[in-house]
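Quick illustration for those who missed Monday's session on complexes.
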Amino acid sequence: MTEADALAAAEAFLTAGAPIRARRHGGGRIHDSFVVDCATADGMRRCLLQRINNRVFPDVAGLMRNVEVVLAQLAAADRNDQPDATASARLKLVASREGGSWTCDLLGRAWRAYEFVEETRVVERVDQTWQAFEAGRAFGRFQRAMSALSPERLVTTIPDFHHTPKRLEALRRVCADDVARRVSGAADVLDRVERHVWLAPVIQSGLDDGRFPVRVVHNDAKITNVLFDAALPKAVCVTDFDTVMPGSPLHDVGDMLRTMTSRHTEDDPDASQVHVAPDLLEALLRGYILEAGALLTAAEIEALPLCGAVIAFEQAVRFLSDHLAGDVYYPVDAPGRNLLRARIQIAQTEALLAHRVRMRILIDRFLAEGQGDGAGAVST
Ligand code: GN1
Ligand code: MG
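Prediction with magnesium ion bound:
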């Protein structure tokens, strides 16, 4: 996929002005993303053009209907929210010339475009305490907005996406096949995965037996899916609605704990440096509970301290499976990259497990503060 392909594809959208240049954009592992400059009478306007990966999302029409429903729900929530609300409605799709929210080119490739959200930035590595607080608030606010949306309104774009036991079964199958002859070289990570298999059913069993309600959640609540203000210490909105589907808030909190409590990226090569930073942990939980604490049931609250370890474990299993299968899902810059990623995630799993008691204390404190004096309680 070249920048020239992207520029040609941009012509199919009603962009503000004429597309004149396309540059590859780093964000995301699944789609090909480009920033397209469009010349208008008032200067340059930009859009984010994405070639949708239809191997991962075969039902592109269903995916894009979901995105439209989610955007409409966010806009409605913003209208009803506080004046200083995080403006999720700033995300807008650019209509295609045919009037839809996406197009298919002559080669059968699916494309969509968003207006570029100017004066924002993505944080790859959380290094400031306020970033964890703001990101927790942003996803908490997102969950609150989605709480009014019935799960039946959305199609399931990827079945069993956070079904951790099925992810583990898939790993076992890839190990048995060993098509890429990589199992022996991954023995250390496989051993550590085995030690933590008890984590696999923790969230899923609660969904299966009805202890945890099924709700519309983001499902990819990682730090790089938050847009921060370019100048001010605040989050503007969350992005990437492709996996917004029925699930559990525990999946989202798990992804937040996995990606926002350590001053690391998923791609750092050195797993020995993985840690849970107490300031980030506290800020994240405080921000999230401030916005979404009142939504949760007693059973969900009970499970919160474990969900980060469950989702880090699941992500370790996914990276490891992909490594053993020969890097067929996640793009890599070199062979072995997915194994390094799996090592980071299993180290994160262990670090999060070691902080369970601390999390329980913090969660109970923030919930009590929210209910006690009303400060920070959910107020819509
Ligand atoms: C993928 O494409 P991106 O970066 O939004 C993946 C997530 C993983 C994540 C790990 C559809 O997300 O589930 O947690 O990578 N999305 C899909 O970085 O598989
Ligand atoms: Mg995603």
